[in-house]
Amino acid sequence: MPTPAEEEAFTRSIVARFRDDGPRLVFADYLDDSPHPADRHRAEFIRLQLALARLPDDHPRRGDLVERENELRLRHADEWTRHLKGLADGYEFRRGIVDSVTVNVAQFAARGEELFRRAAVRRVRITDAGSHVHRLIHLPVLAQVRELGLCGADLGNGGLNVLLRSPHLGHVEALDLSFNGLCDAGVWRLAECSGLPSLAALHLNDNGLITASGVKRLAESPHFGGLRVLDLSANDVGDAGVSALAHSYRLARLHTLRLRNNHIGDAGCEALAGSPLLARLLARDPRLDLRQNSITSAGLKALAACPQLAGVRVLDLSHNYIGDDGLETLADSPHATALHTLLLRQNPITDVGAVLLARSELMTRLVRLDVSSNGRIGRRGIDELWKRRRDFHTVIECDGPPAKAGGPG
User: In CA terms, which of 61, 98, 195, 333 is 20 to 30 Å from 79?
Assistant: First the structure.
């Protein structure tokens, strides 16, 4: 097993070149030479997590690698984190090493410096920040945090206002403010804050009360030009909020935007479809997630007519109001050439739309189709989809089996 001094030496090397796999692989090579099986398994674990970080979600090897990763973690995690005992309440391995921890404010104040010395920590989740935010903001160790996790910390707008007064947030690259009961007033204060110059990822999901008013202020803020990731899921940004983001020249580097469950309708879908923002989103991730909104066939038609649809491989429109005519337009779109997964759960689609999709060119490319909870699709539509599935192997999720589960009759 590495001595504490050896562990700290490797930690310093990894921190110095954090985005580089090289120092982690050097550490793995060192562990391979150990006589202890746990060390050799740790070397394997490091290489597994580095490989998984590079693999796409749909890679055929991913499932086997994840299974082995979990097996090694469950067997050895306590041993691998023994040198960190008492420094934190929880640990997470990322790219092979512990770099994410969960602490309370008292722990962080008392032993935070030791924690950063012993592990290559970047992400710190603080569980009781809402109750102790006045103490937290004055801790110098906060300046070493690169990803600050305050999910569910019960900050509210008042706690956020206090947090943003801290002089130690200049190196924070990711800030998680999800599940904190924030509304527009909190986002307005955030938009005015100049104390987060390194911020690249902002998570505001599941606050529920953030509307277009707050999003507009954020989109117009001169302080967030470096923002690349923005999660607004489960709020109320609506069409006007999407339009503000789509047309923001301040957020020109934004490449990841999550909009699930935001009461977005056709106007918001149209604004996104016609914007440069969509091209940036799809260049980063070919999955477009618009589930749990208020999009109808009109919004889907705007998307189907958009040349940028050619960059979409996975389209999730579950829990919207897409009807047969919108589905027909998508099925006939000349731009849906890369689309292989279409999720349409809980929409008002009938047998008519199901048959139109089944007989389209798009159906010959789909590897997964979800039309479950579309209560107006009956036996005729389900049978037609099954008969015409790609190479008879498309995964089709629906509310019942077809009359005949074999090939075309």
Answer: 61
Go through the domains of the chain in sequence order and give each one's CATH number. 286-409 (3.80.10.10)
Q: What is the pLDDT of residues 227-270, one digit of tens each?
A: 999 999 999 999 999 999 999 999 999 999 999 999 999 999 99
- Cβ–Cβ contacts within 10 Å for residue 304, how many? 21
Distance CA 403, CA 409 (A): 11
Tens-digit pLDDT profile for residues 271-311: 999 899 999 999 999 999 999 999 999 999 999 999 999 99
β-pairing, 229-231 vs 201-203, is parallel
Residue type, 308: Q
Q: How big is the chain by its Cα radius of gyration, in Å?
A: 24
Phi-psi region of 238 (alpha: psi -120 to 50; beta: other; left: phi over 0): left
The owner of tokens 């990894």 is 14
Give the Cα-Cα-Cα angle 160, 91, 146 (nearest 5 degrees).
Answer: 45
CB 304 within 8 A of CB 337: no
DSSP 80: H
